């Protein structure tokens, strides 16, 4: 079956609405010795602030998240701008970034029926089919290697000088993400580490 026929035959897979799994109900099981973690919120980039509340309201209205007055657990959100200009919200549950990327090459003909059967949706304008290179999570991935996205690197270069501890932490988080591409990253960033101390004064 050709790509065009696949897209036409499984049009429901490409509907614009968010999809919900209709086959399995997910359950999270905590370890018996797990302790509650409540992390403070982190500043959201100013450009995203006007978009944040409408996106949260939309997710609540769609029953993807629920509003609460208080919680014993909390994780800071990460706001990511999509290619179409809208935003995606993520919770940062980890203390670091995993550089490992799982490679897979699914066959499309059995893939689309499974997506449809489980009630999920994918955006056709974001699908890259039969390509030799794609950009994913700030990386340019080919069959031969993975390299940093030049646009992301340029954004780091153009970042203004940090004015407080939170902005220093944000900057270090960005450069650490590309640590695999920078030899001796730990040594190079060492002069900036003292700026993470709370008593640091910025001019």
Overview of this structure, please?
It comes from Teladorsagia circumcincta. This is Reverse transcriptase domain-containing protein. It is a single chain. The protein is of the alpha+beta class. It has a domain of 48 residues. Helix content is 28%, strand content 10%. Strands 3-4-5 form a three-stranded antiparallel sheet. Strands 1-2 form a two-stranded antiparallel sheet. A hairpin with a 3-residue loop joins strand 4 and strand 5. It is globular, with a radius of gyration of 21 Å. The termini are far apart. About 5% of the residues have low confidence.
Radius of gyration, CA atoms, in whole angstroms:
21 Å
Helix content: 25-40%
Identify the strand order in the major beta sheet.
3-4-5
Q: What distance lies between the first and last C-alpha atoms, to the nearest angstrom?
A: 63 Å
The total count of helices amounts to 6
Fraction in beta strands: 5-15%
Summarize the biggest pleated sheet: 3 strands, antiparallel
pLDDT < 50 stretches: 95-105
InterPro entries: DNA/RNA_pol_sf (IPR043502), Retrovirus_Pol_polyprotein (IPR050951), Rev_trsase/Diguanyl_cyclase (IPR043128)
Protein name: Reverse transcriptase domain-containing protein
Organism: Teladorsagia circumcincta (Brown stomach worm)
